[in-house]
Amino acid sequence: MKRNLGFFMIIVFTILTISLCVVAEENKILEITNVQDTSILKARPFDNIVKADVLRIGSMAKDETSMGRGLIKFDLSQVPKGIEIVSAKLAISGSVQPRAENPILTLKLYRLLVDWDPNTVNWLMRKSTDDEMLEWNTPGVMGEGKDIDTATVIEFTSGFGWGYKEIDVTEHVKGFLSGKYPNYGWMFKLDEEKANNQYYYLYSSKASESQPKLIIEYK
């Protein structure tokens, strides 16, 4: 009897182990680093700053013309077709500046409603070619319902400290992949933009390390 019970327990344990392994292997992780990003600066409204290795979001001096915002979008073509998205997180690395004051800043991430060209975009223009120049509906990408979607804004807080911070963008990415939303990416801005020399210093895709990435869990 004891021998049969022991054999039975071994079978049960084996089945549970196999089941747990199957569950663990169901979800897969895809990290996307094919990203386009840039800052746009109010003080330099005609300048394209795509080659900078950081995005500056907020006020870089104690005057209203120093405001900066960040634009970012990922190439989702490598995401397998027909999958189920479990989660999607935008991972960014950076810090609040200046370090000495160590403020806690609230940032907002807006889904963009119009396309933009990272190589020509600036505070006033979203893209330009030899044949046409397309302006933002409102300078600084602030045309609510035209440049940005205020209904799906994501808010998060950050203080001083390097290392990656993850922002849940699951619903946005699901929308991009399903065709509900065109994938024009996002805009970063401070919740309260003041001329107080406080800004978020975010590594861009041009940095030698700690570039932004999109982490997708799927099955």
Query: Which secondary-structure class do the elements indicate?
Result: alpha+beta
- What gyration radius follows from the Cα positions, in whole Å? 22 Å
What do the pLDDT scores average to? Answer: 86
Q: Which sheet architecture does the biggest sheet show?
A: 11 strands, antiparallel
Helix content: 10-25%
Strand content: 35-45%
Question: H/E element string?
Answer: HEEEEEEEEEEHEEE
Q: How many domains, in number, for the residues? A: 1
Oligomer: single chain
Number of helices: 2
Distance between the termini: 43 Å
Number of strands: 13
The low-pLDDT segments are none
Shape: globular
What attributes characterize this protein structure?
alpha+beta, 2 helices
Account of the protein in words:
It is a single chain. With 219 residues, the protein is an alpha+beta fold. The chain has one domain (27-218). It has helices at residues 2-26, 170-178, and strands at 28-32, 35-41, 54-59, 67-74, 85-97, 105-112, 125-128, 133-135, 148-158, 164-168, 186-190, 199-203, 213-218. The strands form two sheets. Strands 1, 2, 3, 4, 5, 6, 9, 10, 11, 12 and 13 form an eleven-stranded antiparallel beta sheet that branches. A hairpin with a 7-residue loop joins strand 3 and strand 4 (67-74). The chain starts with a helix and ends with a strand. The relative contact order is 0.28. The model has no long low-confidence stretch (mean pLDDT 86).
Fold topology:
Blueprint: H1 2-26, E1 28-32, E2 35-41, E3 54-59, E4 67-74, E5 85-97, E6 105-112, E7 125-128, E8 133-135, E9 148-158, E10 164-168, H2 170-178, E11 186-190, E12 199-203, E13 213-218
Antiparallel strand pairs: 1-13, 2-4, 3-4, 3-12, 4-11, 5-10, 5-12, 5-13, 6-9, 6-11, 7-8
